[in-house]
Amino acid sequence: MIIEKVQYEIDWAKFKRGTSFFIPCLNPVQAKRSILEVTNRLKYKVLFKVVIEEGVRGLRVWKL
């Protein structure tokens, strides 16, 4: 999955319900679209929240 010209490798098999991951990004709307392409194909329900972690803005994604 490519977000803002950075390739991210997410181990989707290990992405269990209740877990989350953080993707640093400047444009969370576009990042959300990129992530939704994959999660919709896998039929995962996810929750997104724009957050700042350790001074870095990005998206936190939880599997529901």
Topology:
Layout: E1 2-3, E2 6-7, E3 20-24, H1 28-41, E4 46-53, E5 56-63
Structure description:
This protein is of the alpha+beta class and 64 residues long. It has one domain (2-63). It contains one helix and five strands. The strands form two sheets. The chain has a three-stranded antiparallel β-sheet, with helices on one face. The protein is globular. The relative contact order is 0.28.
**Termini distance?**
20 Å
Please work out how many helical segments DSSP would assign: 1
Strands in their spatial order, largest beta sheet: 3-5-4
- How big a fraction of the residues is strand? 35-45%
Q: Which class of secondary structure composition applies to the elements?
A: alpha+beta
H-E order: EEEHEE
Q: How many domains, in number, for the residues?
A: 1
Main sheet: strands, sense, barrel: 3 strands, antiparallel
Low-confidence stretches: none
Overall average residue pLDDT: 95
**DSSP strand tally:** 5
Apparent shape? globular
Question: Summary?
Answer:
The protein is of the alpha+beta class. 22% of the residues lie in helices and 39% in strands. The protein has 1 helix and 5 strands, in the order βββαββ.
Features:
39% strand; alpha+beta; three-stranded antiparallel sheet; globular; 64 residues
